[in-house]
Write a structure and sequence with these properties.
The structure is a homodimer. Chain A has a domain at about 5-120 and about 210-225: Peroxisomal Thiolase, Chain A, domain 1. Chain A is built from 15 helices and eleven strands. Chain A has helices at about 20-35, 55-60, 65-70, 85-100, 120-125, 145-155, 160-175, 190-195, 225, 250-255, 260-275, 290-300, 310-315, 330-335, 340-355, and strands spanning about 5-10, 45-50, 75-80, 105-115, 200, 205, 215-220, 235-245, 285, 370-375, 380-389.
């Protein structure tokens, strides 16, 4: 199996009501990634694209072929991947297999989503397709409602208050404030958190990610090919692990057990592939879609015991100079959560850290980064480990 | 790279207004494939599922995780693939890479679609998301309209009449009549063809596939694993080639040039991988969505020169006892075209032929089969070559 190098990254700023179409967003990110990689488009032989809602919200599917054609990737293998909010990392997982397995030497992977043009209700319904229709969405349950139920139970079970979860959001906003591509570039403090609008008790606006649009992309190459190209940013960044797992779509189990079994499986597989454990991770791009999900993701990935993730926040361990920086460019909370693009934003940002090009948000001596992208209430979990070498 | 064996196949009958949900259809096909393979569900480590419209028409996505969980494939890697009508073969292509590349030893691949419950207009609009919204679907163009334009130009350019295309439909119905899982089990003759309703001049109902529901699945294994299992049907069936290509989503090029460049690329790649050429193919499961598309697919795959595919029909070469049987179990025209499932129906049927279990439709001495699944007006083309050995 070939080692897989990330030789180029590209991203659009995360915005609202500015993007003309999902296709054009995707094109912009792919073109930037190709330029960053310094390769000719015609040398690329596949495009894997993660997207969740383009069919529902702008009546356009077969987006991978559409973008491939628009970006000069004429005739390549082009597929769209869907695993709800984990669609982006699913595309990366396939891109990784295609290169590591020897099927392609050079591939493009993109995640793209455009949500903000849709009326709020339509958008909420479009996102609800990630839940089991028979058990949840047909009764009008939204992910905000489900996460509120999860948060309530997490706080009760572990004898915590919303203030205990606030540091996840505050850390994200601290970091996002310095990311020129983040949507919400304003710091957040405890007062701001506690005074934010209640969406569904106990979940407030500042526990939740914003509706937004964006696209991010990477170019992957075999080790052999990567070594013939000038390194963009030094050192080069390699994918050391790529691992996916699934679970039931119903939110019931997650709420009852306060666990994310797919995230547990996926991170366990990733550690095994990389030959590492949680202590080796220098930074973690968490799927901080809701503050309670950040806690469960940290616990599922071996960074904290059950019910203990909030301690990391209180101790300052999650800040850029802490022992496990998370959401280093703002995370889903502040940079934004364009759902099918999120998995690729996480990876592009991790690459910025490992290349030492993260600007004001640079984590010192970052060598190993982990990204975790979740779909639904943990019905999909995909973990990647990246290493600079 | 490991050789990849198809160790199990499963399919539901193609029906209308009977299937309760896309998820349950998918589950039925997957369970049958697992049973046919004679393996334990828990030995399977991934599910790749092709689907196009479940988000639009039944508000359910993340279908791969949903089906994995319902079929006892607990915790597996599970992704949904979308490449419009080629979604099924896209899922197979990924399953092939996962096994051949050494990422999984045993995977399930499923294609599923449920269309017939939706009001006709809604269904037409849902299928139109495969076209370039900016160029076609936003002006109300449907695939019937686009294929009528293509058919008109094909007939004019090559000085043909609709009667010349009729044999593709008649062959499909002849074969579908004996397939217990086909939707339209009635033979068709030239009178029936010519008297069928005109949908968009010159395209008649009998040039087009029916709206319907269905699911088909296969289980793939490494050569090493396959050889430890009792062969189901003898001999075993192997994937000798798996090749995808893309093209522009606009129908304009296809209509102007009367070619399917993605099908040309994809079949060329497939022949090269398999070390075969068109003369080695014993049967061809064509993407006979519209009669004119059958013609272009045959021409793109090297079975006929441009404008000459209709001769194959006239000569009887496409019948079960001809030199290139197509649509051997009814094809998209008679078995039915549940879009995201079609690519897997083609493969399941090819396996039936190669195993010698195709009943009344058995092609004698079938050893090498080719399947070709198209998305949109040839914006995606995926070709597989299967061999019994």
């Amino acid at each position: 199996m070939s080692e897989v190098c990330i030789i180029g990254v590209g991203q659009t700023p995360v915005t609202r009501r500015q993007a003309p179409s999902a296709g054009e967003l995707g094109n912009a990110a792919i073109k930037r990634a190709i330029e960053n990689a310094g390769v000719e488009p015609k040398a690329i032989s596949a495009l894997y694209l993660g997207n969740m809602t383009a069919g529902l919200l702008e009546h356009q599917q077969q987006l991978a072929s559409l973008c491939a054609n628009a970006c000069g990737l004429t005739g390549v293998e082009a597929f769209t991947l869907e695993a709800s909010c984990a669609s982006g990392a699913a595309a990366l997982r396939i891109g990784y297999m295609a290169v590591a397995g020897g099927f392609h030497d050079l591939v493009a992977v993109c995640g793209v989503e455009r949500l903000s043009h849709a009326p709020r209700g339509e958008c909420t319904r479009a996102l609800a397709v990630a839940a089991d229709r028979d058990e949840t969405s047909r009764f009008g349950e939204s992910f905000v409602g489900l996460n509120a139920a999860l948060m309530r139970r997490y706080l009760l079970t572990h004898d915590l208050s919303p203030e205990d979860l606030a540091p996840f959001a505050i850390t994200a906003h601290d970091n996002g404030a310095n990311n020129p591509r983040a949507l919400l570039r304003k710091p957040l403090d405890m007062d701001g958190y506690l005074s934010s609008r209640m969406l569904a008790d106990p979940l407030r606006l500042m526990d939740a990610p914003p509706i937004c649009d964006g696209a991010a992309a990477v170019i992957l190459a075999t080790a052999r090919l990567a070594r013939t190209l000038p390194a963009r940013g030094s050192p080069r960044v390699w994918i050391r692990a790529s691992a996916a797992a699934s679970d039931t779509l119903t939110a019931r189990n997650c709420i009852a057990e306060l666990r994310l079994p797919a995230a547990e499986r996926s991170s366990r597989r990733a550690y095994r592939q990389a030959g590492l454990d949680a202590r080796d991770i220098d930074l973690f791009e968490a799927h901080d879609a809701f503050t309670v999900i950040t806690a469960l993701s940290l616990e599922s990935s071996g960074f904290a015991a059950r019910g203990q993730a909030v301690r990391l926040g209180k101790e300052g361990a999650l800040a850029l100079d802490g022992r496990l920086p998370i959401s280093t460019m703002g995370g889903l909370k502040s940079r934004g959560h364009p759902v099918g693009a999120t998995g690729l934003y996480q990876v592009v940002e991790a690459v910025q850290q490992l290349r030492g090009t993260a600007g004001k948000n640079q984590v010192e001596d970052a060598r190993v980064a982990m990204t975790q992208n979740l779909g639904g209430m943990g019905a999909t979990a995909i973990t990647h480990v990246l290493e600079a070498a």
